[in-house]
Amino acid sequence: MEEDTVKKALINEFYKLPMTGEEVESRSMEIIDQRVGAHNFSPEEWQVVRRMIHTTADFSLMADVKFAAEAIQEGIKALREGRPVYTDSNMIRAGLSIARLKAVNQGYAADKIVCCVADEDIVLESKKSGLPRSILGIRKAKKQLDGGIAMFGNAPLALMELSRLIIEEKIRPAFVIAMPVGFVHVAESKDEFLSLGVPGITLTGLRGGSTLAVSVLHAVAILAGSKENKEAQSSKGTKQDDLYAAPQNRSSFDAVILIGHGSKKPNAAMNMEEIARQLKQKYSCWIVEPCYMSLNPPYFPEVLKKCVGAGAKRIMVAPYFLHDGVHINHDIPDLIREGLRQNPGIEIFLGKPIGFDESIVDLVWKRICECKP
Length: 373
Fold this sequence. Notes:
Helices cover 48% and strands 12% of the residues. By secondary structure, the chain is of the alpha/beta class.
């Protein structure tokens, strides 16, 4: 008699090649990047939108996300200053990570996250007046809302009441996440808020929800923490953190593409090519190839093809630029997205420009001293 086949649970496949929670999240973000490819969001906006997609697995929401009045910059500022957070539901309040907020400002605690809809006085007033608790809760929290952070994932009427306070009573929130969900007054509440010019992030239309609102504030908090570390490191003379999450161990890269601007001047590329040669010589575990944005070849697509042809799967793009400008924020990311689209199965990481470093101060002084009157 044949032995019965023992059925095994799917989790056993995971146990063969386990991953940490952080690795699962990182891989999820990589999959989102690969599926989306090119987009029109700035790097910081994309960190927010990508986390929204991660929360919902809904790529179509990209078309409906709106950023108003320097939303991310103002949100970062508000979190760093420890502004109070008002939520339109206790679900949002419960979903927010105090630890994540504390990483930005140590003053954050549970009492800095305010939700009034279940307060006893609000419940009684709602029964007496016939008005929804969401509206009355906004009125009660007027003091926290003026200069504070407001989050809406549930109640469009609460968002409409906030807009009234902004229009009629000159309340000015520092940052608003406007993502109520439903079918009554939902789209209109968002459209009215967007017309006010208040810093905020909105998902237009009928979609929204508490989990989306939470994901947005967490994304902004991560950006705020990252920028804070960047400034601290810069003040110590260390290199700045990159906007992109690249592996910390250099040996995890198969190749480095050193990318510069390009020049009409003959032999202008020799300096960068010498740097590429010495990088390859000093760190022999890498393929190192130079390329240029314009004016003189080789260009990025052909160099990327060369690296992939040599077997590279994880490629670092190192900008040979002094400052963070249009090429860093737009042109090079566009080249990378197209490269990923044409070469499925590889990973490309964008490094930071040269930026500030104390060694540059010494180099500039050296050049000053070399100048003879």
